[in-house]
Amino acid sequence: MTKPIIEVKDLAKNFGDNQVLKNISEQVNPGQVIVVIGPSGGGKSTFLRCLNLLETPTSGEVDFDGQNLTTLDTKKVNTLREQMGMVFQNFNLFPNMTVLENIKLAPMKVKNISDADATKRAHELLQQVNLDDHADAFPTSLSGGQAQRVAIARALAMDPKVMLFDEPTSALDPEMVGEVLNVMQDLAQQGMTMVVVTHEMGFAKSVADRVWFMADGYIQENNTPEEFFSNPQTERAQDFLSKILM
Amino acid sequence: MKNKLIMAIALVMALVAGWTATTTTAQAATDDSLAQVQKSGKLVMGTSPDYPPYEFQATVHGKSQVVGMDVAVGKKIAKDLGVKLVVKSMSFDSLLVALQTGKVDMVISGMNPTPARRKNVDFTHTYYQGGYSIVINKSDKGIYKDKDSFVGKTIGAQTGSTMYTESKKQTSGTTVKGMTSVSDLILGLQSHKLQGVAMEKPSAQAYVANNKELAMIPSNFDLSASDTSASVAFAKGSTSLVAAANKSVDQIRKQNLVNKTYLPAAGKYLKTNTVNTSMLHYWKAFLKGIEYTLIITVCSVFFGFILGVLLSLARMAQGGVFATALRWLATAYVEFIRGTPMMVQVMFVYFGLGLIVNLPALTSGIIAISLNSGAYIAEYIRGGINSVDKGQTEAARSLGMTKGYTLRYVVLPQALKNIWPSLGNEFITLIKDSSIVSIIGVSELIFQSNIVRSDTYRGVAPIAVIMVLYFIMTFTASRILNHFERKMQHD
């Protein structure tokens, strides 16, 4: 009934002879939280990066909000990318700018928002991720958890319709994983559409609307978290779960 | 592949040079040289002012200017033509090239009208008949008698001069060493690297009169008249101008103006020069040198940086035939510039490009050094951009920033920080390397020090002074650069 916000049709991606994604067709509805799990090297990150065209698909199409990204010109793609926030495993904060400047840069340069408005909005977002007291710090002085929360705030500053998370907690010390997941959970509760690639099964269980299990370049299983974790359909998923859940 | 490319470039450049050369001969065929000079209202004279009493630098009414008997000859010619004389200084080697490429209208620099030179330029009648002498150290006075006494020894002469050619031809068992400036030769003599220096008699007299350590002996070279006489040179084919100048030259000969008026006047300037030879007295000359050195360096780094950014982007261009062509061109440019000496590039821009557009020496120097520096800076920047983590670009692009914004606000600032030490190095190197433009007569520090050396007949002191001055400049520059480097650190 509802129109999907992201629709992927026959998406494939090759790196040279290596076929990483093999004809994937799925859709994400507004407000949905999708958690993509699966073994390393299964194509999860590549899939996510194809959604906002950081990787150019070899074939197939990615529709965002009804528009096929793969056929649009660069300018249009840039505009649509604003609406898809992305959070990276290694945070990728700009080291030459303060936390506040990191958040303000894109709104000011891309959306031409005034310095005063951008600053105000940045402080609001920093409060949301509990880091307003670090506004003038440089990224190198932050812990991993803090840096990732700033990165989330930075992505949110563009008011995206969808947030993409590429293993957001994989580079963190274990005691910092919680603070980042809490922020993400809050975001989900506020109704943000999210696609999360992660190894945090607990997060998948409690927050996800759907779990996509991905291996060998395919989405092998698309299920509710309850069904997926208690009663996985495919052998590949059963095998994977038996190894991680002990 | 690369070699083919370079060959192609060399070919293109040769063609350009060939084409421009033919255009000049074509110009010369229709002789409007006199009309042109009269139209412009000025006559540009090229000279190498390190050859007293022919031409040298002296302080007149607090201002440094070129004086000497050749300048007096030039003034007379200009006056008879009813135009203003403009004196342009450059090294003796560059004079005839400057004449052929139209940088100057005539050359008066104690130049002998040899048959070889006659092939390339036109000479007036001779305005002065001199002879050669050899300057030696006074302590050696009994040992050397003439050119034949130097068997197993070394004598020096100015590169490109007749003395140099004749010394080679007419001595046997003697090493002949060429240097660009006479002050260097005298310095070589005093430091016993040379046992004698061959030069025009009036010059020898001037040096001996002003330096108690020196003495002169007759050379006894066997010389035809053309080798010991001095004439004014004009561009080949400028018959009308030569004819007009000949009228003045004939008057000079007839009234014996050189010996009666010009030489005594030059002698007076020489005396004022040597009254005070302390380096402090010449602070203005050094200051001017510093000023020009800094102008050249700062401008070249500025334009070189802009060019470097563009070149590095062109070298990294991706996709499409256009991008590939751009990448090839930029790569070829960088390879070519890095593979040729900066001195040659400076001369090519001044003399070569000068055939198409007449650029002043300072502008040519800045252009040449910017072009050179751009190639090196491009490589630093390319390395700097590659050193920035790819995640930075991805983060910026994922925020909707365009390629251009990403580069400008995210990648370049970080690249700049990474390459700052290399850029600083380039800047400091340029402060020193800018001295190369002295060969085309830009009054930067080296050029000025050479003038002070020939003015004061002191060989070493000016070198010591500029060494200290260069060090002060480079040291200050490196302190300033360090300051900014510290400012860019955020850890």
TrEMBL record, chain A:
Transmembrane segments: none
Compartments, as annotated in UniProt: Cell membrane
Assigned protein family: Belongs to the ABC transporter superfamily.
Membrane topology value: Peripheral membrane protein
Protein name, per record: Glutamine ABC transporter, ATP-binding protein
Alphabetized Pfam families for the sequence: ABC_tran
InterPro entries, per database record: AAA+_ATPase, ABC_ATPase_HisP-typ, ABC_transporter-like_ATP-bd, ABC_transporter-like_CS, MetN_ABC_transporter-like, P-loop_NTPase
SMART domains: AAA
PROSITE patterns: ABC_TRANSPORTER_1, ABC_TRANSPORTER_2
Coiled-coil zones: none
Entry's Gene Ontology molecular function annotations: ABC-type amino acid transporter activity; ATP binding; ATP hydrolysis activity
Species, as recorded: Levilactobacillus parabrevis ATCC 53295
Main location: membrane
Cellular-component GO terms for this entry: plasma membrane
All residue ranges annotated as the ABC transporter domain in the record: 6-241
Keywords (A to Z) from UniProt: Amino-acid transport, ATP-binding, Cell membrane, Membrane, Nucleotide-binding, Transport
Domain of life assignment: Bacteria
SUPFAM superfamilies (UniProt xref): P-loop containing nucleoside triphosphate hydrolases
From TrEMBL, chain B:
Keyword Signal: yes
CDD domains on file: TM_PBP2
Superkingdom of the source species: Bacteria
Protein's cellular compartments: Cell membrane
UniProt membrane topology term: Multi-pass membrane protein
Residues in ABC transmembrane type-1 domain copies: 290-478
MF terms (GO), sorted A to Z: transmembrane transporter activity
GO biological process, one term: amino acid transport
SMART domains: PBPb (SM00062)
GO CC, one annotated term: ATP-binding cassette (ABC) transporter complex
Coiled coil region boundaries: none
Keywords: Amino-acid transport, Cell membrane, Membrane, Signal, Transmembrane, Transmembrane helix, Transport
Transmembrane segments: 292-314, 348-371, 460-481
Pfam families xrefs: BPD_transp_1, SBP_bac_3
SUPFAM superfamilies per UniProt: MetI-like (SSF161098), Periplasmic binding protein-like II (SSF53850)
Predominant cellular place of this UniProt entry's protein: membrane
Signal peptide annotation: 1-28
Family, similarity comment: Belongs to the binding-protein-dependent transport system permease family. HisMQ subfamily.
PANTHER family linked: GLUTAMINE TRANSPORT SYSTEM PERMEASE PROTEIN GLNP, MEMBRANE COMPONENT OF AMINO ACID ABC TRANSPORTER
Name this protein carries in UniProt: ABC-type amino acid transport system, permease and periplasmic component
Species the sequence originates in: Levilactobacillus parabrevis ATCC 53295
Taxonomic lineage from the root: Bacteria, Bacillati, Bacillota, Bacilli, Lactobacillales
